[in-house]
């Protein structure tokens, strides 16, 4: 992902029923959380093990052996939890000079019989170059991506496990995007190529009610601010999510406005779909060779997972 300044396209309107839901007072929100007896428990240690499992393959750079092996691991894992798993191939162009390789979005559906759906997503690839490393000699090194990539996927894999054990009350699409982190600095649309392809081929009848993107949510010192594009385009939805975090007394969700980020939520915002990016950019190991599992924490994954569980099952 990359910080950005300009987002073209006009936001779409929220469905009336969704606006009413988003504007539910916080006092009602707290009551709903405290009285919810069927909300499952998020297993932070299992989620962290899923982060480590991805990193064990090595950097998941598109077209590499580690990338293909991790793809198979993700498909196999999700196939154990969902009967409807699809691999969506697309051509990814990256590098200088540009090269075309095959990349893969991975889509798992829960309650596919329901037409009204929400979409939870993360990217599973890792950066081909450690171009933010302090040592220029390390710049050609591929990034392991424990936080930047594996953390969001780890949370969603554990959510898939929860959905399998306890069917969600609504339709869920869980999407792992490829080709997010192979962007070229200065070329905005070279980032988030997997989500651009997915959104560009999504029939309007299949538009989700809202989208939550998880990116860089494993930092030991997690501090998720309100990403600027999300706040501008989906303020009511963001207020709902932050209200859940406040009711759960989760302190890693901060009220401050954060930077604007070119990330996998942008293609959905351009379609007028409410979407928010849960991201902590204040991470000193971003796009460096030091983005390793020891910089991440099960407690951080737990903060995000607990919010998602409450959002899905309590509301």
DSSP helical segment count: 10
Summed up, the domain count is: 1
Q: Architecture, CATH level 2?
A: 3-Layer(aba) Sandwich
Helix content percent band: 25-40%
What is the CATH class name?
A: Alpha Beta
Number of DSSP strand runs = 10
According to CATH, the homologous superfamily is Zn peptidases
What letter string, H or E per element, gives the SSE order? EHHHHEEEHEHEEHHEEHEH
The mean pLDDT is 90
The major beta sheet can be summarized as: 6 strands, mixed
Low-confidence stretches: 4-32
Portion in beta strands: 15-25%
CATH topology: Aminopeptidase
Radius of gyration: 18 Å
Distance between the termini: 30 Å
Describe the structure.
This protein is α/β, with parallel strands linked by helices and 315 residues long. It has one domain: Aminopeptidase, CATH 3.40.630.10. The chain has 10 helices and 10 strands. The strands form 3 sheets. Strands 2-3-5-4-6-10 form a 6-stranded mixed beta sheet, with helices on both faces.
